[in-house]
Amino acid sequence: MRAAADELVASGLLRREHGRGMFVAAPAKTMRELVPNGRGLAMPLTRGTVSGQVLGCSVGRAEGTPGRRLGAAPQDLLVHVTRLWRAEGRPLSLEHLYIPRELVPDLPTHTPQAGLHAHLEDSHRSEGYEAVQSTEPVLVDETEAAVLEVPVLSPALLIERVTTDEQGRPVEYVRSVYRGDRYRVVSRLSPPRPRRAPADPVPPTPHAMTGPESVVS
Fold first, then answer.
1. C-beta of residue 159 within 8 angstroms of C-beta of residue 137
2. Residue 136's CB: how many other CB atoms inside 10 A?
3. What is the pLDDT of residue 59?
4. Domain ranges in the chain?
5. What's the CA gap between 119 and 121, in Å, rounded?
6. Series of mean pLDDT values for 10-residue runs along the chain (217 residues)
7. Which of 62, 65, 82, 148 is deepest in the core (most CB within 10 A)?
8. pLDDT computed for residue 217 by the predictor
9. Residue 39 DSSP label
10. How far apart are CA 134 and CA 174, in angstroms?
11. How many angstroms separate the Cα of 132 from the Cα of each of 36, 64, 154?
């Protein structure tokens, strides 16, 4: 019995607390390090096996928050893609992706299950140039709880991102809800690097000195 318990502790399924006993270990959290990666259209950096599943794709008017974030007029059309991300086979986040319809005219009829951003860049030239992202704590509603397999009002992280192209035009708005018990944001901070001292100027090459020209008559 003890050998079996030791094996479960070693595998991370149980944790042993001195003087208290054995407890079921909480699942390891998926970590994301906030570092620039040069791609606005990208899945957050994570450790472990991460997979995405497209739950739905539709076209609608640019209303509410998505329309405002994309700077679209109410009569404009947006493509709305809903995806479920899993880490190690378990639900991690529910993502809502909004893109102007003019950039992806065929997406509702041809929605790739994998490599969605690569499809956008290769097929529609909607490569992201810069992105602004925010993170805040929220509580999940009934729909989010059912998809993420957590109780209603469980704590979560809301991550919103707006990506613009090289002309500064918004091309993507993403609203993702991450399970609070499975996701951790890590920031790497470093002091500013001192500026390099300018290199010593190279002295000009001296020219040959010549005296006044003599004229012999």
1. no
2. 9
3. 93
4. 29-187
5. 6
6. 60 59 58 48 57 91 95 94 91 94 77 60 61 93 96 95 90 94 80 68 50 35
7. 148
8. 29
9. -
10. 11
11. 11, 19, 26
The token duo for 60 is: 């609608």
Give the integer Cα–Cα distance in Å for 75 and 3: 67
Instruction: Give the side-chain half-sphere CA count within 13 A for 177.
Output: 20
Tokens 């140039």: give the residue.
129
Query: C-alpha 82: how far from its chain's center?
Result: 15
Answer yes or no: are the C-beta atoms of 32 and 45 closer than 8 Å: yes
Query: Residue 104 CB: number of other CB atoms within 10 A?
Result: 23
Q: Which two tokens stand for residue 5?
A: 């318990």
Which residues, in sequence order, are bridge partners of residue 68? none
Is 29-187 assigned to CATH 2.60.40.3450?
no
pLDDT value of position 88: 85
